[in-house]
Specification:
single chain; alpha/beta; 29% helix
Length: 270
């Protein structure tokens, strides 16, 4: 099932245990809390579609005064464009291969093989209330798509998600998330609408449309933020249900990606 390599992450200013391993045939990276090996405490898990800039993320968390009390598991796909697209579509750019739309199979591997492995071999809190799925770009699109295929995740974070993807807005309008109590975080760069690619240039319009649709479906007021993400009025983040949050960031699609991950984590973790 796995070939594991352990090492300590010290560049972020604190020793963090990191494991690289194979689960369900996919390359994964597990980041454990600093106190993981000191007891039998169980932890929430943040699953990430794709690789995460972990050193930068840990550095930004430290700057924010946060000592992660959760496990991070990032999953590298076999093919970014194929595994993180819900169905086939035309090529994104001239000369590229058209995406094959294998996200359904990827999500099956994630929920039926990878998550059960994590819950059996690590000190996790397996319930949806303590389980989040996040992703950047097409990984964020797939995180949202998962809501219609599985009820494993109580928290979804789509960072600069490729919600312009052909037919996705219509899909969200026609379908319903399997969990009515799922909490959804969306973020986007203010300049992403300026993409020279006409399909990708629709991302702000599509993200706002998805936000409005999910807000209506999940029945909670919008939590739209332009500043620091986090809890509201000191409320317990685990007590929130059906919240949809849209946060705008400076810059374009690849601007300060680590900080965008951290803002999503702060929203999830309070």
């Amino acid at each position: 099932m796995r070939e594991q390599e352990d090492f300590n992450l010290e560049e972020a200013g604190a020793v963090q245990l990191v494991q690289e391993l194979q689960i369900a045939g996919l390359c994964c990276m597990v980041v454990l809390p600093q106190d993981y090996e000191s007891g039998l405490q169980r932890y929430p898990v943040l699953y990430v579609n794709g690789e995460i800039p972990i050193i930068e993320v840990m550095t930004e968390l430290r700057k924010a005064g946060v000592s992660p009390g959760f496990i991070i598991l990032s999953v590298k796909p076999d093919s970014w464009n194929d595994d993180f697209t819900p169905w086939s579509a035309p090529a994104f750019r001239k000369g590229e291969t058209a995406p094959q739309g294998r996200a359904k199979d990827y999500i099956r591997r994630l929920t039926e093989e990878i998550k059960p492995y994590m819950d059996a071999n690590y000190h996790t809190k397996p319930e949806p209330a303590y389980t989040a799925l996040s992703g950047y770009s097409l990984g964020g699109l797939t995180a949202l798509y998962s809501m219609y295929l599985t009820n494993c995740f109580g928290w979804i974070c789509s960072l600069s998600g490729s919600l312009w993807y052909d037919g996705f807005c219509e899909f969200v309008e026609e379908e319903r998330p399997l969990r009515q109590d799922v909490n959804v975080y969306l973020s986007l760069g203010k300049k992403e609408r300026l993409s020279r690619n006409p399909r990708m240039g629709k991302v702000a319009e599509c993200t706002e449309k998805v936000r409005q649709t999910l807000e209506a479906q999940l029945g909670r007021p919008q939590a739209e933020k332009t500043g620091k993400a986090g809890g509201q009025n000191g409320t317990d983040e685990r007590g929130r249900v059906g919240e949809v949050c849209l946060e705008w960031n400076e810059g374009g699609h690849f601007h300060e990606t680590a900080k965008r991950f951290v803002r999503a984590i702060l929203w999830w973790n309070g």
